[in-house]
Amino acid sequence: MATKHEQILHYIAGLPVGAKISVRSIAKHQQVSEGTAYRAIKEAETTGLVSTIERVGTIRIEQKPTNNIETLTFRALVKLIDARVLGGSAGLAKHLDKFVIGAMTPDEMLRYITPNSLVIIGNREDAQALAVQNGAAVLITGGFMTSDAVIAQANQAGLPVLQTSYDTFTVATMINRALSDQAIRQDIITVAAIYTPLADTISAQPSATVADFTALRGEHNDFALPIVTATGRLVGMVTPRQVAGKKPTTTLERIMQKDPQTVKPYLNVTTVGHTMQGNGLAVLPVVDDDWQLVGIVTRKNVFACLSELNAQGVGSTIADSIGAQLQLDPATTEARAVYTLDTTPMMINKLGAVSVGVLSEAVNGSVTGFLNLHGRRNVLVGDLTLRSFRPIQVEATVTITVVPLQLTRSEATLDVTLTTDGLAVAKAIVTCQILERT
């Protein structure tokens, strides 16, 4: 029988997208305490079932599992560029690996054409036929047509021949952005990539005793024991704190933490690290949508993964492009860091001033860089309050000064001042959570 916690989660999952919920309404409808309702709502928020919006409340949203990594197919490309399929529709499900712009002679093109690639070209039938013969799809730009012979070849080979009214530059930009987004999604590491599977996980049933826990723990320092039913459903967690001072014959069912904090395989590692740091947890159970235990994830694995992400970087995001333009000033000392940012036309809003979003990301990058200089590698900005005094013009040089107000092992509060030509243009107070490996 499902627990009250599970019943609430199933109820929330069954609500229509956009439905508003509250602790009180859930508690009344499900006939549970407000504490139980609150824990279930927080779990639903973690898994992406609901979202809390300021001055609106908590609403049901569409859940988008982050482990469902989509690859760019020719069918998706048709929608992306509003293309028309002239032939080879049987190959629309194939994946697009790269694209080639056919602005060269057929002999020179041949070295660049590979299977599952896309050749972007105009009204050159010889080059179109060459692409199909060598296993590549064809995208004809400018609204031009092709011959029946090329279409027949495409149908026989199962390679799409597409037509779009866009010009080559526009199409190449759109496809490049889609491929870049795909690469970024693939670089986002989820729990599924780092958790310890069930076959290697130590667990026990509620009837086990404190003596059994001690024997299973062995020499492990960071140890938490998932408690499961005979069918494998998670019902609780036991840590050394719960067994301290208890008799060896005490059953774990009496002392276990019921409705424990859990994670799903599709959650990204940063979210899990934030949960672990905020709740002081060394181990989290990994469950599926039916609360069946599938493994555990440890603090050590999470923060080792975060360290690798910091070293490798992820794709080419907006944050990356702004961060790359932040230059560390020689005036930087241990007590403060000074960065400079040369604003570009891409950073301005419709009024001609640098946008607030760019300023926020510049502050974020400066604060993260300062903490990195002090050995804090895994930094998550929790709160950023930005006050802008005057607009910043395009092609101005912004000086960003970061001064720590409070710096502990797990948190940091920093004062950030932005100036141009010696005048203060903005001020920010930033609070960060430091996800350290312990």
Low-confidence stretches: 65-69
Q: Based on CA inertia axes, which overall geometry fits?
A: globular
Helix/strand-derived category reads alpha+beta
Instruction: Profile the largest sheet.
Output: 6 strands, antiparallel
Overall pLDDT confidence: 85
Strand order of the largest sheet: 15-16-18-19-20-17
Strand residues, percent: 15-25%
Number of domain units: 4
The CATH level-2 architecture of the largest domain is identified as Roll
Give the class-level CATH name of the largest domain. Alpha Beta
Number of helices: 15
Alpha carbon gap, first and last residue: 38 Å
| Helix fraction bin | 25-40%
Within CATH, the superfamily of the largest domain carries the name CBS-domain
Radius of gyration: 28 Å
List keywords for this structure.
438 residues, alpha+beta, Arc Repressor Mutant, subunit A, Udp-n-acetylmuramoylalanyl-d-glutamate--2,6- Diaminopimelate Ligase, Chain: A, domain 1, 5-stranded mixed β-sheet, 15 helices, 24% strand, Ser_kin/Pase_Hpr-like_N_sf, Transcriptional regulator, HotDog_dom_sf
